[in-house]
Amino acid sequence: MRFLSSLSAVILLLSACLAWQAESNTLDAKPQNALTMNLLINQKSFPVILADNPTARAFAESTPLTVTMNDLNNNEKYHYLSRPLPAQPKTAGHIKAGDLMLFGNDCLVLFYKDFPSSYRYTRIGTVQNPQQWVQMLGNNTVTVTFSR
């Protein structure tokens, strides 16, 4: 009886580990049919993987879009859009450099530093290889072009 209990516990633990590993791999991998776009800063282009949600699709439909983004808190750039986008905000918990989010329903936010946050955002996408473009953002305003 004790052997069966131990065996059940081991099987349960292994299945939990495998499920966690599968979920982790899914989060890191680019989905096969993911929507993508480009972010252009200072004539350098960076790929953006878009989230699979109505906000990201609506944002993609509004491109090409060139905006001047202002700095806030030395960790993000923001721009108020001329039209609202559909929003389903969730508490961020932790922001990562490269996160492209919507604050409220009309404020586009591009984060260039990692930090904890209790604010609510709707995810639009993630800029790939943020370490390459963070230095280009600086603390000033920056002109950014989004295109598909």
Counting helices, strands and paired strands, the structural category is alpha+beta
Q: Give the name of the CATH architecture of the largest domain.
A: Beta Barrel
Please give the alpha-carbon distance between the first and last residues: 61 Å
Basic shape:
globular
Rg over CA atoms: 19 Å
What is the class of the largest domain in the CATH system? Mainly Beta
Strand content: 35-45%
User: What order do the helices and strands follow?
Assistant: HEEHEEEEEEHE
- Number of DSSP strand runs: 9
Write a structural description:
- The chain is an alpha+beta fold.
- The chain folds into 2 domains: 1-30; 36-147, Beta Barrel (Cyclophilin), CATH 2.40.100.
- Helices cover 26% and strands 41% of the residues.
- It contains 3 helices and 9 strands.
- It has helices at 2-28, 54-61, 134-137; strands spanning 36-41, 44-50, 65-72, 76-80, 90-95, 99-103, 107-111, 115-127, 142-147.
- An 8-stranded antiparallel barrel has the order 1-2-8-6-7-4-3-9.
Structure summary:
The protein has 148 residues and is α+β, with helices and mostly antiparallel strands. It has helices spanning 2-28, 54-61, 134-137; strands at 36-41, 44-50, 65-72, 76-80, 90-95, 99-103, 107-111, 115-127, 142-147.
